[in-house]
Every structure is written in structure tokens, then in C-alpha cells.
Amino acid sequence: MKHLFSILALTFFFSLSLFSQDEIILNSGENIKGFVTEISKREVKYKRVSNPDGPVIMIKKREVNKIVYKNGEVEVFALSKPVVAYNQNIFAYNIWDVVYNQFAFSYEHISKNGKISFYIPLSIGYGDSDGPKNYTDLGFTGFGIKLFPTGQHRVTYFLGPEIQFGIGEDYVNDYDPYSGYYNYSKTKQFYYGRFHINNGISYSPVLNLKLSALFGLGIRYYDLKDSYDSGMQSSAYFTISMGYTF
Asked: What CATH number is attached to the domain comprising 119?
């Protein structure tokens, strides 16, 4: 009689343990019965019902739809996009700027949340006749901001403002009071400023490489007396860059 009572008791407690378990329901529809031990930012850890003293098993959190705990509580996991790894620093060379007779580089730092970045451009001009009405851009630097509405992905859209300060050289109208004519053989250096709103797309085929195309529209101001380029005018800028990320 005692032996029968012991068997019934063991059966009861075993049946109770079957009901005292967690149920992990995956996005694929599969149900996993076990004991959840830990939920981290990216993983769910559990042990099997059949081997509670065995090893901890890990499953990616994005694969889990919900967990029904043994006390009846239900935790639902929202579907999320895969996390894209990216480096926060970029050193880039503007390939397209050779068309403007310029060597142009930039340094960019992306925030931890991937929503905004700050960058500093640097350009050194060479040759001549690389600007409107044949002025020479000797070089510029500045400061820019990029906003990433959807964060960082393999293909990412961005937009934001950029301000540039530079120095150039141009021909000026040199009036000859003796002849009463203007001659254009005299060159003069001048300072300028530009403000653009940029839009662009970047593509990262691998972690340490970023390719970008950027187009900006805005205004510019050249302080150059007696030149057709002087004053405020509309401005546009296009470039393609290749960057190393780290």
C-alpha cells in the first residue's frame, strides 16, 4: 500500500512539473517547452524540460514571437529588423572632385544610435578655371551634419546641412584711366562661403567600406570686388566618395 502511494505521489509531482514549465513560441510557429533562465537584449536562454540540469540553450530573440510563462503571464516580442553592424568613424576620399580640379577628403563620426553624424570636409584645389566664370578654387573646409531617418543599413539615405569656408582666385576688372578701358589680366584672391542642403545615399558592401553619392543645393557668397563672381548666387554640388570605416 505504501509502495502504491509513493508511485501515485511521484506521478502527481511529475505531472505538476509538466504543467509548471514555460512555452516559447517562435515566429515560425514552432513551440518549445522548457524553463526560461535569461532574456538578454539579443537572445533568449532556456533549459529543456527533459533535461533541467543540462546545458543552457540559446535562441535569437528576433526569432521569438512570445513566451507563455508557467504562471500564465505572456510576454510578446515585437518583430524587429536584424541589427546591422557599422563602424562609427569614416575617412573618405571624394573621387568625383577631380572633375573640379580638387583633392577632397572628409572625416565623419556617426553617433551610437546611428541616427546622426558630424563631418569635416577638406579640399585642396589645383590648376585653374575650375569654377563658374573661370575662378580658381584654392581650397575650403567647413562643417556638416547628416541625418539618417531610418538609422544605419547596408543602403542608407541621409540628408542635412553643410557650411563651407574657402579661398579662391579670380580675374578682376582692372580699369586703366589713361586708356579708358578695362583689362582682365589681373588676378586677386578672395574668401567665400557656401551653404548647402545635401541629400545622398550610402552603400556598405562590407563593414570597412562605404560608398556614397551626395547632391547639394544652396547659396554661396564671394567677396570679390569688380568681378562677375562677386556677391550672392545659387550653388550646387555633386560628388561620389569612397570611405574607410573604423
From this structure: 2.40.160.20
